[in-house]
Amino acid sequence: MSLPRGVTTLKEVRDSCRNCRLRSLCLPESLSTADIGKLEEIVHRRKPIARGDYLFQAGHPFTAIYAVRTGSIKTSTLLSNGDEHISGFHLPGEVIGLDAITSDRHPSAAIAMETTSVCEIPFNSLEALGEQAPALQHQLVRIMSRELVTEQGTAQLLTRRSAEQRLAAILLNFSDRFANRGLSASRFRLPMSRLDLGNYLGLVPETMSRTFRRLEEQGLLSIAGKEVSILDKCALTELAYGTGPDASDTTRSGRA
Question: Which residues form the Cyclic nucleotide-binding domain (predicted)?
């Protein structure tokens, strides 16, 4: 068997960009086989990160962006009083680190919520490759635009909404994101703790527990630990957005 350029083992063939099941989420469909081969040459597939370990810390120099392959990562910052503020949750196929491009330092820390593997892409090499492959450069701009939309959606999610609306919206967000990965949109496992989810939504633990319970009592959800089953998506959507399930909303399509 002839191995792709830059690849030395069968395992690397299975793990390569062209064979990755998440390819459609982080690579443009128009990227040629030759350009994918060039991209594979600069991608570093790091050893898995254990739960609770840092991918990078706030203030560290920016050298690369990272695509989550398996597992999940949260990004967070420390407030002036020393409390943690969680700014996002990142699933397989999503890219982390783009918010450091302007300052050349990471403004937030990235921490594994479970055993997680990532692809590390040196940014200088990616920029140079983008000049040779316009489709790749376009994809990078598209991902950056998605990050901006996500930030705007998060602001909308947390502004002037009740606890029930916030929780309903974030669960629908995860539903859509799992569906984009070919997984069930109605039954999924949340990778974060309720404490972290409450931190992200701006809700204290007691409020989180009451809110989950109210949504269960209304017949919208079924909860078993971290396992969530959406029982009435139409009603959950109505609660979150005051509209039907086909309506568009940046907080639904963006990343949390």
Answer: 27-110
